[in-house]
Amino acid sequence: MIWAPLRGVLKKLVNDEQGFKEGRSSVFVAVESVYSMDGTIAPLQEIVGLLEDLLPKRNGYLVVDEAHATGIYGPQGRGVVAMLGLDDKVFARLHTFGKALAATGAVLLTNTLARDYLLNYARPLIYTTSLSHANIIAADCSFDMLENGTADKLAKQLLDLCAYFLDLLRPELATIPTPILSLPPHLQRPFPNDPSTYPTSLPTPIIPLLTRYPRPLSAYLFERSMNARPITWPTVPKGKDRVRVCLQAGTTREEVEKLAQAVVEWARGVESEQKKEQRHDKKRVMGRAVVGLLESKL
Fold it and tell me: Fewer CB within 10 Å, N- or C-terminus of the chain?
């Protein structure tokens, strides 16, 4: 089970605190539908089932951040929750107007009680500046594309490009040392067509290239007119450095091929340099050994 640790935490809460068992206390579980650094999709159906199973008094609430799913998954780009038909099972959903919708701002979909509470007590909302007319118009134009089906075609094109990019990389990275460059485990194999793994097996537009040298790789790509940003601690845990590739629907297959080729060329160049250094180190060690042997004989 992917979320076994969550089950353990919830079971401990219910067993240790009578209020959770009786429905007097509530549990809120907050997740991203598509995680921004790894590009993994949360098993929302499993989490919903977990909450209903362990908290049958309906005092378990799921909050889903759909920032990286908005405009890409689900009917009219309404996200993973809508794609799975879980609209009535989720307490609140956050959809940003940034990222795929190319505007600014966000909307929180929830019930009337939560909405009224936030309007009166959420300080970041109360004291923020309202959206400009230009941003509202930009978001509205994106909504038009979601409603008329244009975004569905673009989303399919985007996910096809992501799968194609990974298909180009996998056989090349198999011969490159992992510390130099690798894909995370969930991307190392082609996406299965097994319905039981849906939707966690779907491609996402976030592709992390794991490497100890994220800044040199990013700079190498930038010199070739490709912008993929380095991600290091504290954004990700220490030892999990990466370059995050985020493709766009307007990217061509030729550009994806160019990107994959540049990434592999960089990795092979680093590997070659490291082998040269290892040979030089070996020669220096052998040289010291010879000098030591001669000195001992003298």
Answer: C
Q: Is residue 41 part of a domain?
A: yes
Domain hosting 108: range is 3-148
Q: Is residue 155 within 8 Å of 70, Cβ to Cβ? A: no
CB atoms within 10 A of CB 4: 9
Q: Do 116 and 156 share a domain, yes or no?
A: no
Digit-coded pLDDT (tens) for 108-164: 999 999 999 999 999 988 898 888 999 999 999 999 999 999 999 999 999 999 999
Comparing CA positions, the residue from 178, 183, 188, 167 lying closest to residue 270 is 178
> Which CATH number does the domain housing residue 93 bear?
3.40.640.10
Quote the pLDDT of residue 223: 97
What six digits make up the tokens of 128? 């923020």
Q: Is 126 part of any domain?
A: yes
pTM (2 d.p.): 0.88
Q: Are residues 165 and 271 in the same domain?
A: yes
**Domain for residue 190, yes or no?**
yes
Q: Are residues 173 and 258 in the same domain?
A: yes
Strands ordered across the beta sheet of 60-65: 27-32, 60-65, 92-96, 106-109
Instruction: Identify the band that residue 285 occupies on the pLDDT scale cut at 50, 70 and 90.
Output: low
- Virtual CA dihedral for 28, 10, 83, 32, nearest 10 degrees? 60
What is the crossing angle of helices 133-147 and 150-173, to 10°?
80
Query: Radius of gyration (Cα) for the chain, nearest Å?
Result: 25
